[in-house]
Specification:
The complex is a heterodimer. Chain A is an alpha+beta fold. Chain A has helices at residues 3-16, 18-54, 78-82, 87-95, 131-135, 148-153, 162-168, 215-219, 247-262, 274-317, 319-327, 332-365, 381-407, 411-416; strands at residues 60-65, 101-116, 119-128, 140-143, 157-160, 178-183, 188-198, 210-214, 236-241, 269-273, 369-370, 373-374. Chain B has helices at residues 44-51, 74-84, 100-111, 116-126, 142-154, 172-189, 200-203, and strands spanning 2-13, 16-28, 33-37, 59-64, 67-68, 85-89, 160-164, 192-196, 208-213, 216-222. In chain B, strand 9 and strand 10 (216-222) form a beta hairpin. Classes of the chains: A alpha+beta, B alpha/beta.
Chain lengths: 418, 238
């Protein structure tokens, strides 16, 4: 019997039992589909995190208070209030002449409500210095970023991220206009003059939803941000290094300087380069990918067992058919070929449908909001290949044993079987 | 054309040996129409299975066209079975959900020969099923189903047609039509037919009647050609 005939025969049998075939492939369709979808979600998450970190700027080193030093992170003022870092640390790093350091910007992030007339929007204010714009590669659309003069005098001025500006003053240039920033759930409210508006930042950048104000402007008004010794607490210090600088060396020197300044031997801070941050995030999201992939894999396995189950049942159910085929001249090989081809055909159809559904849902989900979070999915060609190959292997595996059983059917007994 | 030399077949079921065939010698020539008769359990079906290469003798030799079948592998037997023998069963043994044409095509598929559709259609015409080619078994009467089964066995141009109680499930009129078909095939195409039957009037269509009892042949006689039309006149001691 030729392969074409074997394939045609199996198609006939599959279509003759549509419901059974459909339900059998359903397991595989869902298995293959979920492997592709879940891996796409995992990889999408990874890409989004990586992009977000890359979007922060280039050649950056971040200094943050270590987790052990900050006991609670409840948002609002709680984070900055417990930080072990102060503005003086940033100034010292900049002034110390560490080789490779281009500029240093300390900043404190606080969640606020930004209000202008009838419009208001939840935003994150970043209280920082003039260097921040350079460190984070922020481009100005109109007006200016925080200037060194602002750093010194601490006026109530604000630079708006593109989306914040668009929400507060839709269609208008907001430079020179007033906005109110409401801190800590309305307990403190201050008026600011818009000094500049940022260009819409490409990719996944948080800067679009942020408001930047001079650190010095709130330093003189929010006394509780100071440590008992008079340092102004900041939540993070960003260091931009020259491209090609020895990041490791810079980190070591910054670490020594901070240990000295904090008068401790145990670091109460964490220094991470952008690459390390990406590495950590990648490791985490890889674990996520593996976890998601395994869940998909399990459903694929279950689908495979389903195919085997049906094929085994069908050998018993089709004893008479096998007997008839034997009587009209089918060899054992023909019978094996029939059952393997049938299982394989089911699995290939299931696999293809699964690929269509998996990639379809992945594509449909990409860029959609889900639970307030924008989903990113990245379809991995290898996941399609692997899922499909597994489906084919399942077909071969789950067809072979029942096929072997089928050749053991005694044609005489089979034909008497009414 | 086929020859059995002192063939026995012993089944061992749960320790007890059952002698289904206890030394059968039989020779059937080309173009013969033979009826095998006997009570249930006399070994008729076993004999048919051995002739049809579905079963192997325990001892003794079986020759097809002068060659011993003993040395053939399972696959060689399957191929010879597909090419040289046609089977017709009491229960038709058609495959469900396949049209008459597909049923008849089946042996040709396993042989891998060309012009399958055409040959299958011709075989169906030969058994008088011109209008039923695209019907499935459930849409056919018993007689029609049996004709499909016969067309399926004829399509490969077999040496020998083996029919196990072909009329068993048919009313006497349809049964008689079927026997007329067999007679035509034997007379016009030189087909060899061996049929197992209980019914004397069906058996009487053959040239020769072989009677069996307890795994042995007890009588092997030519039918009186003078009474070709069976009227039950052949005194039968069934």
């Amino acid at each position: 019997m030729s392969l074409v005939d074997a394939f045609r025969l199996s198609l006939r049998s599959i279509f003759a039992n549509r419901l059974r075939s459909g339900l059998t492939s359903l397991g595989l369709i869902l298995g293959v589909g979920s492997v592709i979808l879940l891996i796409a979600v995992g990889q999408g998450t990874q890409q989004e995190i990586t992009d977000r970190i890359r979007g922060l700027g280039t050649d950056l080193i971040f200094v943050e208070p270590s987790a052990a030093a900050t006991t609670s992170q409840t948002g609002g003022f709680a984070g900055p209030l417990e930080s072990t870092l102060v503005q003086g640390d940033a100034l010292a790093i900049a002034a110390n002449g560490i080789h490779g350091v281009l500029s240093v910007a300390a900043h404190t992030s606080i969640d606020v409500q930004a209000i202008a007339g009838p419009n208001n929007v939840g935003a994150e204010i970043v209280a920082t210095s003039s260097e921040y714009g350079e460190v984070r590669d922020l481009e100005i659309n109109s007006g200016s970023f925080i200037t060194p003069l602002h750093d010194e005098e601490g006026p109530l001025v604000a630079v708006l991220g593109a989306r914040v500006a668009e929400t507060l003053y839709p269609g208008n240039d907001s430079v020179g206009r007033e906005i109110r920033l409401s801190f800590a759930g309305g307990r403190l409210s201050l008026g600011f003059v818009v000094a500049g508006v940022l260009e819409e930042q490409g990719g996944v950048s948080e800067a679009n939803d942020q408001v930047f104000i001079p650190l010095s402007s709130i330093a003189s008004r929010v006394r509780f941000l100071f440590t008992p010794t008079g340092g102004l607490r900041v939540s993070q210090i960003d260091i931009q290094t020259a491209s090609g600088a020895d990041e490791k060396q810079v980190k070591e020197e910054v670490s020594e300087l901070l240990l000295f300044r904090h008068e401790t031997f145990e670091p109460d801070f964490v220094i991470q380069s952008q690459d390390e941050l990406i590495g950590t995030a990648t490791a985490v999201s890889n674990t996520l990918s593996i976890l998601l992939g395994s869940i998909g894999g399990i459903s694929l396995l279950v689908g495979g067992i389903g195919v085997m189950n049906i094929m085994l049942v069908s050998v018993t159910e089709r004893t008479r058919e096998i007997g008839i085929r034997r009587a009209v001249g089918a060899t054992g090989t023909d019978i094996v070929q029939q059952f393997v081809t049938e299982a394989l055909t089911l699995c290939i159809f299931g696999g293809l449908a699964g690929i269509a559904i998996g990639t379809g849902i992945s594509l449909a989900m990409d860029g959609r909001e889900l639970g307030g979070q924008e989903m990113t999915t990245v379809i991995q060609p290898w996941s399609i290949a692997v899922a499909f190959l597994v489906a084919v292997a399942v077909g071969l595996g789950s067809g072979s044993y029942p096929a072997y059983r089928a050749t053991k059917v005694d044609p005489i007994a089979a034909l008497r079987n009414e | 054309m086929i020859r059995l030399a002192n063939v026995t077949r012993v089944y061992s079921t749960g320790g007890a040996a059952v002698h289904a065939l206890a030394g059968v010698s039989l020779e059937i020539g080309r173009g013969e129409f033979v009826s095998v008769m006997g009570q249930s359990g006399c070994g008729k079906s076993t004999l048919m299975n051995i002739i049809g290469l579905l079963d192997r003798p325990t001892t003794g030799e079986y020759f097809v066209a002068g060659k011993s079948a003993a040395g053939l592998s399972e696959d060689a037997r399957a191929r010879l079975r597909g090419r040289a023998f046609g089977f017709v069963f009491q229960s038709y043994n058609l495959l469900p959900r396949m049209t008459a044409l597909e049923q008849v095509e089946l042996p040709l598929i396993y042989q891998g020969v060309p012009n399958r559709k055409q040959r299958a259609a011709e075989a169906l015409l030969r058994v008088g099923l011109r209008d039923r080619i695209m019907h499935q078994p459930t849409e056919l009467s018993g007689g029609e189903q049996q004709r499909v089964a016969i067309a399926r066995s004829l399509v490969v141009d077999p040496l020998l047609l083996l029919a196990d109680e072909p009329t068993g499930a048919l009313d006497s009129e349809t049964g008689a039509e079927l026997m007329k078909l067999f007679t035509e095939l034997v007379e016009e195409r030189g087909l060899t037919v061996v049929q197992v039957t209980h019914e004397p009037q069906v058996a009487a269509y053959a040239h020769r009647i072989v009677r069996m009892l307890d795994g042995r042949i007890i009588e092997d006689a030519a039918v009186d050609r003078g009474g070709k039309d069976p009227k039950g006149s052949n005194g039968d001691s069934k």
